[in-house]
Amino acid sequence: MLLRHAVGRLVDLPASLIKVIERPGHAPKLEGMESGPWFSISHSGPWIACATSAHSAIGLDIEVMDAGRDLIGIAEQTFDAKKANAIASLKEDARVGAFYEAWCQKEAAYKLQSICDGETNKHYLALPYPEVSIVVCSAFPIEKAFIQNVVAEEMNLHIGDDPSTKEHQRIKDEKAP
Fold it and tell me: Under a CB-based contact definition with an 8 Å cutoff, are residues 56 and 139 in contact?
């Protein structure tokens, strides 16, 4: 529902007309829209995010920030030595944000690369939220206001389509004539 709503708003169509093709083991695909718009979706814990673009393929990642994990150990296994050492040298409160932003950059870039079939320029935008890290990656410079509008407004949707949620009602009310 979130993807159909975001794409519908971007292309000025009702969400009900946006058809999503599920592809097990792969990202979903929009029926009849092979050359855009582009989108990326991600979820972590109770959070879900969706970013759309009319101009560029994009990658998006969201992660709930958990200070209780062995962030230094994970950084050493995941990032190059320079990045891992930079994260390890930070005080704990700054380390958590830096680790998850770097993690989300890596994941968002991976999603972008899988769409672009190889190397491409990468431009990042980290969106500030207190409990989650959100990063959008694009092959072209990102217009901050546009991405924040799509992602930030949709962040509190629950995974699934529960019509009793306040957010579902808000979306339904927005579409009413």
Answer: yes
Place of tokens 């992660």: 63
In Å, how far are 26, 27, 60, 81, 165 from 38, measured between CA atoms? Answer: 15, 12, 11, 33, 27
Q: What is the pLDDT of residues 134-168, one digit of tens each?
A: 999 988 877 654 554 444 444 443 333 333 334 43
Burial of 97 from C-beta contacts in 10 A (0-12 / 13-18 / 19+): middle
Q: Are 134 and 49 in contact (CB under 8 A)?
A: yes
Asked if 135 and 100 touch (Cβ cutoff 8 Å), the reply is no
How are beta strands 38-44 and 47-53 bridged, if at all?
A: antiparallel
CA distance 142 to 147: 8
3-state secondary structure of 126: strand
Concatenated DSSP letters of 21-77: E--TTS--EETT-TT--EEEEEEETTEEEEEEESSS-EEEEEEE--TTS-HHHHHHH
The pLDDT tens digits for 21-64 are 888 877 788 888 877 788 888 989 888 888 888 888 889 999 99
**Cα Rg, the chain, nearest whole Å:** 17
Segment 84-124, tens digit of pLDDT: 999 999 999 899 999 999 999 999 998 888 777 666 678 89
